[in-house]
Predict the 3D structure of the following.
Amino acid sequence: MSRGGFAIGGRRFRFAGTNNYYLHYKNHHMADSVLTDASLIGLRVVRCWGFLDGAPADGTVLQPAPFSYDEDGFEPLDHAVFRAGQLGLRLVIVLTNNWPDFGGIPQYATWFSAEHDDFFRRRDIKNCYRSWVRHVIGRRNRYTGMRYCSDPAIMTWELANEPRCPSDTSGDTLVAWADEMSRYVKELAPRQLVAVGDEGFYGRAHEPCYPYSDHDGVVWQRLIALPAVDYGTFHLYPQQWGDMLPEWGIRWIHDHIRDARAVRKPAVLEEFGWRADEATRDAIYRAWTDAVERFDGDGDHFWLLTGRNADDTQYSDYDGLRVIYPSTTATLLAGHAGRMCPSVGHFGHGSAGSHPR
C-alpha cells in the first residue's frame, strides 16, 4: 500500500493482538485456553516464543545443546501453530531472547564461553543461531503436515526479543547483525514477514531520556530501514524505563508511527504494560490504544494474555501484567480490536492470499 501498511487481498490490515510466552512448552489445554480467549476477544495476532535453549522447562527443550534439536520438544509448538490456524489467528514467532528466560543469548554465551554481545559478532555463535533458525523455519509440523515456512498461520519471524548490544552505542554492531539475519530469514521464508523484535530505542547520543538514548546500542530508525525488515517493532514500559508518567507513552507511540511512515513501513507496538489496579490500568491502556488508532498505527500486542491451567484455575500473575478473559481489561481491548480491524474475517490453513504484505 502507498503508506507502507499491511494488506491482505489488496485491503489494509490493522490488528490488535497479544503476547504469550508459554505456548511452546505448556500442555494443549493451557495453549488452547489462551488461543481461544484471544479469538473471543477479537484479537488477530499472537506473539509467542519459538525457542527453548539449554535447560528444559516442564520437561520440554527445543535446543538442548548447540546444533542439537529435540524433535519431541517441538510437539507443543506444533500444536500451537495448528490450533492458531484453526482459530484464524496469526502468530509472530520469536527466534531467541536477549534475556536468560528459556535460554536465549545468555545460553549461547555460556555454550561458547563468550560475553553477551559476542552473540552479535562471533561467527561461530552466528552459525549456531543460523542453524537453529534454519531448523525451525524449515521443519514440518506434525499436525498440519506443512513446513513452518509455508504455513499461513505464521505471519512473522522475529530475530530476537528485545536485542541489545550496549558495548557498541553507535548501533553499528546490532544493525549489521540484524541486516545479515533478516536477509537470511527472508531467504528461508520469503512469503512470511520479518521483524527485529527490538524495543524501539532511538540511539541518540547525549539524550537524557533513556529510551531515546544510545545506552543499549539500538538505533531504531536504522533497523527499520534495513531492506529485509518488513516492519518496525517497539515496546512501551514507562515504569521500568525511568518511572515516567503514562502520558509519556503517547509521545512514544506517535514518534514511532511517524518515523515508520517516513520509510513507508508499518509500525507495531508489540509489547506494552503498566502495573496498577485494574481501573487505573484500564484508563492507561485506553489512552495508549486510542493513540495507536488516532495516529493510524498498524498494530499492537499487549503484554500479556494468559489462560487457564490444566485444572481450570487461572494462570498465575507472575509479573503483575496478566490479562484474563473475561475482565474489564479484556472488554476494553476487545473494543479496540473491533475498531482496528472491523471487517477482516478468520483465515484458516491454506487461505488464498492470507500472508500480510
